[in-house]
Every structure is written in C-alpha cells, then in structure tokens.
Amino acid sequence: MTVTASTHATWMLFGGVAGVLILASAIGALLKWRVAQGQPHSVIDNLNARVNAWWVMVAVIGLAFALGKGGVIVLFYLISFYALREFMSLAYTRRGDHHAIALAFFVALPVQYFLIWIEWYGLYAIFIPVYAFLVLPILAAVGGDTKRFLERTSKVQWGLMVCVFCISHVPALLTLQIPGFEGRNLLLIAFLVIVVQGSDVLQYVWGKLFGKRKVAPELSPSKTWEGLVGGVASATALGAALYWATPFNPWQAALMALTICVMGFFGGLVMSAIKRDRGVKDWGTMIEGHGGMLDRLDSVIFAAPIYFHALRFWWVP
How far is 85 from 134, CA to CA, in rounded Å? Predict the structure, then answer.
C-alpha cells in the first residue's frame, strides 16, 4: 500500500469523524434553540460541552497524526504524564514515597516512551511490569516509612501500570511491522480510538433510550445491560465497517472491535471502582464536559495492550 493510499484513508477517516461532529454540533445548537430556548439546560448544555471537547480532542489527534510518529509519541507521553498526575493526586502517599513517585514521573515514564521510539519491544514490554515494579518498593523502603507500606507501594505501581504502561501501547502500534500494511500504522490507532470511544457513546445512547437493568449499580449507576449490549453490538458493527482501514477482513475487524469493546467496558468498571474507593465522581476537570484525562481514557487503558498483542501475535510474522 502506497503512502498516498495511506494518506487518503486517513483523510477519509478524519472526514467521517468531522462529519459526525458537524452533525452533532448542529443537533446541539437546534436543541438549545428549540427545546431550551437559549436558557440553561443541564442535559443539552452537557451534550454541547462534550461535543466542543471532542472538537478539541480530534484537532489535537489530527495534529499529532500530521506530525507522524514523533508527534504521536509526544502526544501520548503528555497524556500519560497528566493521567499519572491525576492518579497520584487521589492516591494516599507519604513523604517516604517521594523518591518512588519521582522515579515514576521522571525515569519510568520517559524511558518507556523512549524505548517505544527506538522500537525495542523486548524491553518496553517488560520494563515497567518487571524492572520498575521491583525498584519502586525498594525506593519506598529506603525512605524508612512502613505505615501502610504495601498499600502505598501498590498504588504507585498500579498508577504506573495503567497510566504509562497500558497507554503507551497506543503509540506502540506504530512499531508493528505488518506485511502489506507498511506505512499505514496510524490507521491502527485511529481504528482503536474510533471503536472504543464509539462504544462509550453508543452505550450511553442505548442506555438512555432503553436502559432499565443496571450492570453494576455500586460502581457505575449509569451503565445498563441494554446500553452495554446495544452499544457493544453497534460498535462492533462500526468496527466491521472500518475493515478497509485495517489489515483485517470484515469478520476479523468485527472480532477485533468486539474484543476492544469488551475490554474497554471492563476497564471502565475497574477505573470506576477506583474512583468510588477514593470517594470522587471524576478523576479531574481537565476536559470540559468529560471530567479528567483518565475519565476519557478508562476504556482505552485495558483495550490498548490486548489490541496491540493480538495484532502482534496474529499479524506480525
């Protein structure tokens, strides 16, 4: 596949996303005018805030894509940094953890993305879950503070795992050498993002329209079985329809999309459980209408590594 064909496919995807956002913006404006009559309306205002935030996020992702591999790696490095900051701001830490936290931010994070830049799979696949996980408790122990030591250490480790290791598998998709798909790896990222975020939106829509039975009322009261089944089925169909932008045929694209959706759902539940444990509704307020960085990434966190390794196992010789 030539670079020109790859660029054409990328433009087609972004054109489709832009078309959906234009339609959503028009619907939001119409609802504001006809239903709310220009007055404050919680549901409509939240919808418009989310659409406006999506415009910004799509523009940022589009800029990173335009800059190529370096732009994508820098973008997700910054995303991991802010996600880790949000996570650590809610974690219980003490003075004895400062060295471990500093290592997480200023050593483990940049080294992980540097290893992806130089495409050293053998090391970036184990650097955090093996080496960093062993060094972090050593640094915490050297601090001499044993109060709630296991809890504090595991929180730093888990934060590094979800915010850096898992998220870094998105730009790591650029390192895969898939025969016949050379120069098109940006489309693998686009497929992941569109499917996982599409699943979130479609689960919300199906849940609002038909949702009655709660999936996990203690973790996420808004998630229903009707929304889950309808959203996952719709997003799976969306993934199958995007097979032309991937190395998959339609049924393989559908199976991959289904896997992404299921792992994204469970990732969202896990991150919701952490928020409930910390007594907060959102991870932060960084993105208007979307909460914090982690609120937008909770579905990607679990989906990205599974998607990456499925591709590497089945499509990389």
Answer: 21
Instruction: Answer positive or negative: Cα dihedral of 111, 115, 118, 120.
Output: positive
Measured distance CA(247)–CA(29) in Å, rounded = 38
What global pTM score does this model have?
Answer: 0.90
| Dihedral over Cα of 147, 148, 152, 157: its sign | positive
**Integer Cα distance of 156 and 70 in angstroms:** 28
Between CA 123 and CA 3 the distance in angstroms is 30
Decide: 300 and 170 in contact? Cβ < 8 Å.
yes
Closest-CA residue to 66 (of 186, 171, 211): 186
Question: Residue-wise pLDDT tens for the chain (317 aa)?
Answer: 445 556 677 778 878 888 888 988 898 888 777 776 677 776 677 667 777 777 888 888 888 888 889 999 999 999 999 999 999 998 888 888 899 999 999 999 999 999 999 999 999 999 999 999 999 999 999 888 899 999 999 999 999 999 999 999 999 999 999 998 988 999 999 999 999 988 988 888 898 788 888 988 888 888 899 999 999 999 999 999 999 999 999 999 999 999 999 999 999 999 989 988 888 888 877 765 567 888 888 889 999 999 999 999 999 98
In DSSP terms, which residues pair with 111 in a beta bridge?
none
**How many CB atoms are closer than 10 A to CB 197?**
18
| Residues 72/171, Cβ–Cβ less than 8 Å | yes
